[in-house]
Amino acid sequence: MHKGIHLTLLVGPVVPVPVPRAVLDALTEVEVTHNTDVPSAFKLKFNLSNRSPLQTIFLVAAGQTPMLRVIIIVTIDGTPQVLMDGLMTRNQIAPGSQPGQSTLTVFGDDLTKAMKLIDFSGFPFPAMPVEARILLIIAKYAAFGMIPMVIPTLFTDVPIPVERIPAQKGHDLAYVQELARLAGYVFYIDPGPAPGTNIAYWGPEIKVGPPQPALNMDMDAHTNVESLTFSFNTADTTIPIVLIQNQLTKFPIPLPIPNLNPLQPPLGIIPAPVTNVTVLRETAKLPPMEAISRGVAEASRSADAVEGEGSLDVVRYGRILKARQLVGVRGVGMAYNGLYFVKKVTSTLKQGEFKQSFTLTRNGLVSITPRVPV
Question: Which residues pair with 47 in a beta bridge?
Fold first, then answer.
């Protein structure tokens, strides 16, 4: 690793411990992907001799321990940051480039993997609003250091037991994600801030807050990205129309939902033109406010027509670029300069280098801010 970057690897069941020095010496590559659309994942590559006992240790541990936990910590200039906290899912061994050598690759997912192990279908939640159900489910995983951060919905519905008792469908992750989808929310697990702890977030996708240091392109000595390209796609932009049923006439009333979300303000002055109309017919059976919430969620998902892809060297950038936060972009022209939401980041660590590839999104052209924060 770079002299200012240090890697710490902890492995073990439930409560991991630092790995021996021999394991770190055999580690050749670490890859961690944070994606807003799917659970985060990691990959570890080890270069081992065919007679190395480490191969047996990893294979036996993975076979005997159903939940082998892996924590990856990166320390930059003395500041530790938890890059990944997850569970090992599978191993793969391939012949190496030299005789007597092999490559052991360990794959894993974040701690949402633990929420998919047991099917709790039918578990009742009498007189419990959605927020209480989420808190109860997350409490099962306190041993993994999960700290719940649950944002209440705008219109809380407390079911009356004599009328209906909500029951879980599927495993915990599927049920929590379904409740989030119905509320127009998201659910994810963010590792840290301290090693061994995780924030289990259930709430609206937030695209506001202080931006990360700007990504600079074609700015001579201030350039801190290796590549950066943008595209403007209007083929998938849509305006949803929810159907609200009149209680007296039972006639559905169509209501178009614009993309107006205070937690996802426009980042561009010129929005993408709407090219599709989607009618959400199932909303006719829902209360009006719940139907509108689904329409707002659908509108926000289709609004990001501007997408940027690039890569950077962490040493030159000076910090780790994080997903689910804003970042500024400079030096790419008036149409694409400005603030973006970081949708995906893949971090790759090898001996002597730490690089990241990323995907940025925005809902329009031309920055809403006259100056991009450095």
Answer: 103
Distance CA 71, CA 81 (A): 11
22-26, 29-33, 271-275: which range is least confident on average?
271-275
Is residue 20 reached through a cis peptide bond, with omega within 30 degrees of 0 on the bond before it?
Answer: no
The CATH homologous superfamily of the domain defined by 212-232+305-367: Baseplate protein-like domain - beta roll fold (2.30.300.10)
φ and ψ of 76, to 5 deg: -115, 115
Quickly list DSSP for 159-214. --TTT---B--SBHHHHHHHHHHHHT-EEEEEE-SSTT-EEEEEEPPP--SPPEEE
Tell me if the pTM is above 0.85.
yes
Give me the half-sphere count of Cα atoms (radius 13 Å) on the Cβ side of residue 47.
Answer: 10
133's enclosing H/E stretch is helix 130-139
Q: Which fold has domain 5-109?
A: Thrombin, subunit H (2.40.10)
The angle at the Cα of 356, spanning 351 to 362, to the nearest 5 degrees, equals 180
